[in-house]
User: What shape does this take?
Amino acid sequence: MQCNVSTAKQNKKMLTKRIIPCLDIKNGRTVKGVNFVDLRDAGDPVELAKIYSDEGADELVFLDISATEERRSTLIDLVRKVAATINIPFTVGGGISAVSDVEVLLQNGADKVSINSSAVKNPQLINDLARKFGSQCVVVAIDAKQIDGEWMVHLVGGKVPTEIRLFDWAQEVEQRGAGEILFTSMNHDGTKNGFANEALAILSKLVNIPIIASGGAGNIQHFVDTFVEGKSDAALAASVFHFKEIEIKTLKTALKNNNIEVRI
Assistant: This one.
């Protein structure tokens, strides 16, 4: 089974920038924290998914953030319910460690999958998924923290540090067949102080697949900056959308007014 998005490998040269709300799921509810901790409830994921789809979001990301830590598979019933309410591409992550996990998710409405800790622990998984389902189906999420000037990869929802450097790992996942990279700056996550644009710009130069910026969105200018300065191909955010601080239609109009190509 191939995933449902375009079969042509995504080209980083795509002009249209994407806005992607993220649903971080814990115990069946949408949650949001700061720097990966102090989680608070942000609403029903099915209701939020429908709102974002109706408001003009380009895609939706669903991350079961405790699945890996709790050593269980993703919440399939919830994935199915969300998929039934939206008509935009839908990426699902959390607890994916085998080809069979992806088959189940695609059968229940996911268009793409996001792998993170499992990809670091078993890099061959990236190759296997790309070969079976197509690169366009495989998003590798990378959570990294800047420590003494060096961006280091972290696992299990940011709880487990590694000795892997962000930029080395990004190049490897592209070589192994990933179709996109979702980079979350742990330093910026939930702070609303803007995206890690310096690191994003480096990533954009190093790899030829789309980079999704995550962590730090606080206002409309931050989205403008990540597309212009960070050279990001898409911007993902959570709390500013969940708590109605930014409306997607207003955001897209502002981006358009800044000569940034978006789908209106």
Confidence is low (pLDDT under 50) at residues 33-40. The chain has one domain: 18-257. The longest helix spans residues 45-55. The CA atoms of residues 59 and 243 lie 19 Å apart.
